[in-house]
Amino acid sequence: MASVEEIDPRLDRIARQPFRAKFHLRGRERSTVELRGMPTMRQHAAELIAQRLAPESPYKDGKQTPYRGHPVFVAQHATATCCRTCLQRWHDIPKSRMLSPDERAYVVEVICRWIEREFRANA
Questions:
Q1: 25 near 123, Cβ under 8 Å?
Q2: Which end of the chain is least crowded, N or C, by CB within 10 Å?
Q3: Residue 71 belongs to what H/E stretch?
Q4: Cα–Cα distances in angstroms (integers) from residue 23 to residues 3, 40, 74, 79, in the given order
Q5: Contact between residue 58 and residue 52 where contact means Cβ atoms under 8 Å apart
Q6: What is the DSSP letter of 94?
Q7: Measuring CA to CA, which residue among 111, 10, 26, 14 is closest to residue 65?
Q8: Are 30 and 96 in contact (CB under 8 A)?
Q9: Domain ranges in the chain?
Q10: DSSP 26
Q11: Closest Cα to residue 62, out of 80, 79, 47, 46?
Q12: This prediction's pTM
């Protein structure tokens, strides 16, 4: 699994893309992190990735991740972990095969790292 030292520069590079830069934790999503905490966010991220991103051919790939409604969804768009095309383009994880356990763990780590950084930056 990638370390924080490897993830942070990638998140910084992704955040320079105008589309990705506009995503932030606000309102309900921010409150959810505050109330539930990072262990719960990590669990939710793992469940959502397993269901929506890990399969070889995810259902409605490219449209399966809502823009709002849960901190993990916002983080997925901000970190380019929202679909298999973005995973391939930004994280070098190939399409057309199931994500390995290590790749799933990496995606969850990227999402949680973004949530932690976003939460601290706007505290």
A1: no
A2: C
A3: helix 71-79
A4: 23, 21, 6, 9
A5: yes
A6: -
A7: 111
A8: no
A9: 4-121
A10: -
A11: 80
A12: 0.92
What are the tens digits of pLDDT across the range 57-74? 887 777 778 888 899 999
CA distances from 56 to 25, 61, 122 (A): 30, 10, 36
Q: Which tokens in the block code for residue 28?
A: 């309900």
Query: Among 65, 75, 55, 57, which residue's Cα sits nearest to residue 15?
Result: 75
pLDDT, tens only, 4-25: 678 999 999 999 999 999 999 9
The two tokens of residue 7 are 């993830």
Structure tokens at 24: 């932030």
Q: Token digits for 11?
A: 């998140």
3-class secondary-structure state, position 28: helix
The amino acid at 6: E
DSSP for 39-63?
Answer: HHHHHHHHHHHHHHTSSSS-TTTTT
